[in-house]
């Protein structure tokens, strides 16, 4: 058995013993070639060189590197400073090269290298979602290359995705967890446990890519369907799909906690309108009356002896059924609005709201306007995340009173009272 190359993370040594085995590339002197990014240190551990950008280096037997072009740069590498490219479609394995497959990387994807060996390389895959640990994943070394050879993008079938989620990804339905989803996954299939009847949804996660990478890394796992019900820090949940996806397939993959989006035949408002926002305040909740006119939304309220005014730019896109508010500009006037201006200014925010539709109490929206950008289509939303722009002050005050109690008041379709989200 020929000697193995030890991990870069353990200060690589004796790599010259790997001569004759399949590796991504070799210098004229016979040493492995890799890309390195970051500070190189001398034998005492002190910074020696910080090359601008990435540098192609030779990996020497003592674990140090030197500029492959023959320049003077040399030193000991930074942890996880190495990278190589996938030269074809590469299968990614969990825990070891004999471990289960958790996804694939396409040609041209740039891997960050956690450890490099003669036959097997460990890649650095960051964890996704809140408090997720990094994923220890492995690939065959012979599938890697120094050069990024772009492959033409492979055609993807119509996809169904969910945004605003942070779910655990399991190796199998009910099996161990290996990562979390981040904020968006694609829905691939579903299955039910024969023992418990519990529903599981097969999902794909785009693991992103590093600068200089042209390929994609996709992780695949199973998520417990009930995990999709919970709101997350990722924002409002929505189910989106490519236009060619049949509605029957979208409905089959619906996770619990989502409702199908109703049709919308007309703009939410005419040229002029009045509505009320439920706002968080020092008293718990308050209602602010807003007026729409001349493509602006404005409102004012008394705060002691001062009058405060606010004004937003208003726009509506019928294709994406999105309201966009920009600003706001504000002023504070003395003597309940009759005196001089005490303060004023503005913000450069832009907030989008996807229109769900009209309800008895007002206009239902969800915070976020990116869901339905063409060519994707918004199919479903979480009713629990709906915000209402109330038709009347009385309806708004009713829900404001509920916010000051122990239990928020329910609104239409099972949603709960939510404060207006803005700048």
The number of domains is 3
- Proportion in β-strands: 35-45%
Instruction: Give the beta-strand count.
Output: 30
Rg calculated over all Cα atoms: 28 Å
Major sheet size, sense and barrel closure:
18 strands, antiparallel
Separation, N- and C-terminal Cα atoms? 65 Å
Spans of 5+ residues with little confidence (pLDDT < 50)? 1-22, 405-415
Helix content estimate: under 10%
- Count of DSSP H/I helices: 2
Query: Average pLDDT value?
Result: 83
SSE-based structural type? mainly beta
Overall 3D form: globular
Molecular structure report:
- This protein is mainly β and 423 residues long.
- The protein is built from 2 helices and 30 strands.
Reconstruct the topology from this structure.
Elements: E1 33-36, E2 40-41, E3 47-49, E4 55-59, E5 65-67, E6 74-75, E7 82-86, E8 90-94, E9 101-105, E10 110-116, E11 120-125, E12 135-140, E13 144-145, E14 160-163, E15 168-170, E16 177-180, E17 184-192, E18 199-206, E19 217-224, E20 238-241, H1 247-253, E21 259-260, E22 273-279, E23 286-293, E24 296-303, E25 306-317, E26 322-333, E27 341-359, E28 362-367, E29 377-381, E30 387-390, H2 393-403
Antiparallel strand pairs: 1-4, 1-7, 2-3, 4-5, 5-6, 7-10, 7-13, 8-9, 8-12, 9-19, 10-11, 11-12, 14-17, 14-20, 15-16, 17-18, 18-19, 20-29, 21-29, 22-23, 23-24, 24-25, 25-26, 26-27, 27-28, 28-30
Structural key phrases:
30 strands; globular; 423 residues; disordered N terminus; mainly beta; 2 helices; 18-stranded antiparallel beta sheet; eight-stranded antiparallel beta sheet
């Amino acid at each position: 058995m020929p000697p193995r190359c030890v991990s870069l993370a353990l200060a690589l040594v004796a790599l010259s013993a790997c001569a004759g085995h399949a590796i991504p590339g070799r210098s004229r002197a016979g040493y492995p070639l890799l890309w390195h990014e970051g500070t190189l240190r001398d034998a005492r551990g002190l910074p020696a060189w910080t090359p601008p950008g990435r540098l192609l280096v030779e990996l020497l037997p003592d674990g140090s590197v030197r500029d492959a072009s023959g320049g003077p740069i040399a030193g000991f590498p930074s942890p996880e400073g190495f990278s190589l490219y996938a030269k074809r479609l590469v299968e990614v394995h969990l825990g070891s090269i004999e471990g289960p497959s958790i996804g694939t990387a396409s040609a041209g994807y740039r891997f960050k290298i956690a450890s490099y060996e003669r036959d097997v390389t460990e890649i650095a895959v960051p964890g996704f979602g809140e408090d997720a640990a990094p994923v220890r994943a492995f690939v065959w070394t012979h599938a890697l290359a120094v050069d990024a050879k772009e492959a033409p993008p492979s055609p993807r079938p119509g996809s169904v995705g969910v945004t605003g989620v942070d779910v655990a990804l399991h190796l199998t339905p009910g099996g161990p967890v290996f990562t979390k989803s981040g904020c968006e996954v694609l829905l691939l299939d579903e299955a039910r446990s024969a023992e418990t009847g519990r529903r599981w949804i097969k999902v794909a996660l785009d693991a992103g890519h590093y600068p200089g990478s042209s390929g994609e890394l996709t992780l695949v796992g199973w998520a417990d369907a009930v995990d999709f019900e919970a709101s997350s820090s990722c924002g409002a949940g929505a189910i989106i799909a490519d236009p060619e996806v049949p509605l029957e397939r979208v409905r089959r993959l619906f996770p619990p906690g989502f409702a199908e989006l109703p049709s919308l035949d007309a703009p939410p408002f005419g040229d002029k309108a009045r509505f009320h926002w439920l706002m968080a305040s020092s008293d718990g909740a308050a209602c602010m009356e807003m007026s729409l006119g001349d493509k602006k939304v404005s409102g004012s309220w008394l705060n002691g002896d001062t009058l405060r005014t606010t004004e937003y730019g208003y726009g509506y896109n019928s294709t994406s059924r999105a309201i966009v508010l920009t600003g706001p500009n504000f002023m504070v006037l003395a003597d309940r609005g009759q005196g001089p201006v005490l303060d004023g200014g503005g913000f450069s925010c832009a907030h989008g709201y996807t229109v769900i539709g009209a309800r008895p109490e007002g206009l239902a929206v969800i915070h976020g306007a990116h869901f339905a950008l063409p060519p994707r289509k918004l199919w479903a939303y979480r009713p629990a995340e709906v915000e209402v722009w109330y038709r009347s002050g009385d309806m708004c005050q009713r829900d404001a009173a509920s916010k000051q109690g122990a239990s928020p008041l329910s609104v239409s379709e099972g949603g709960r009272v939510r404060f207006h989200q803005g700048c």
